[in-house]
Specification:
Helix content is 2%, strand content 38%. The longest helix has 4 residues. It is mainly β. Strand 15 and strand 16 form a beta hairpin. The N and C termini lie far apart (118 Å). The strands form 5 sheets. Strands 10-16-15-12-13 form a 5-stranded mixed sheet, with no helix packed on it. It has 2 domains: 84 residues, Immunoglobulin-like (Sandwich); 85 residues, Immunoglobulin-like (Sandwich). It is built from 1 helix and 18 strands.
Length: 236
């Protein structure tokens, strides 16, 4: 029987303290890069020792690409000559022997454009008294600002142009200019509109179309060639 008065010593206990992984977050030198112009560096924070860094884009592992570089221990992701396809979202993950934790996703707002605009019209030719309606679109981020001209003279701003009760004096070369204030770029295109009197010439009313050729940003005076193919007539 053990003597109650005697003392005994217990064996030492070792406690392994496991620190909680910090939630990572992503910083960047530029969240609003310009397409084919800027290099973007994404950094996974915080900088820690003994952790492994992993990157994901659109929820998937990074694709193999010479434009994607991960110097050091993959903490930094470099996107060279960023394009509109590089918007993301991007996530970074840190891992240790015990577990892992992922950052919140971030996206890039890639600026581009405008592309050469296109002019849309429900009609190819008009006659007096009708309403002339034209619309213009150019792919751009942020969305482009538009203005209209006729024979080089300013008409109005806006993506759509509507002129009621037109006359033959409204015939001319209509231009649409698209400008992106973020990229500083501006591009234009033109379409020739012909307004006839009360009666449309028989050569046009029998089903022949008049096609307009688009003018690019730096093109000179264009020639508009009538189509030789009648509308709605199948080839034999």
């Amino acid at each position: 029987m053990k003597n109650p008065g005697s003392s005994s010593r217990s064996d030492p206990v070792t406690l392994n303290l496991i620190s909680e992984l910090p939630k990572p977050y992503i910083t960047s030198n530029n969240f609003n890069p310009m397409e084919n112009k800027n290099v973007v560096a994404l950094t996974c924070e915080p900088r820690t020792q003994g952790y492994t860094y992993l990157w994901r884009v659109d929820g998937q592992s990074l694709p193999v690409s010479p434009r994607l570089k991960q110097p050091g221990k993959n903490r930094i992701l470099i996107l060279a000559n960023v394009t509109r396809n590089d918007t993301g979202p991007y996530e970074c993950e840190i891992r240790d022997r015990v577990g892992s934790i992922c950052s919140d996703p971030v996206t890039l707002d890639v600026l581009y454009g405008p592309h050469v605009p296109r002019i849309f019209s429900p009609l190819t030719y008009y006659h007096s008294g009708r309403t002339l309606y034209l619309s213009c679109f150019a792919d751009s981020n942020p969305p482009a600002e538009y203005c209209w001209t006729i024979d080089g003279k300013f008409l109005q701003s806006g993506q759509e142009l509507s002129i009621p009760r037109i006359t033959t004096e409204h015939s001319g070369l209509y231009g649409c200019s698209a400008r992106n204030s973020a990229t500083g770029r501006e591009r234009s295109t033109f379409k020739r509109i012909k307004v006839f009197g009360k009666w449309i010439p028989a050569s046009l009313s029998t089903g022949f179309s008049v096609e307009s050729m688009w003018l690019s940003e730096k093109s000179q005076e264009n020639i508009f060639i009538p189509s030789l193919c009648p509308m709605g007539r199948s080839k034999s």
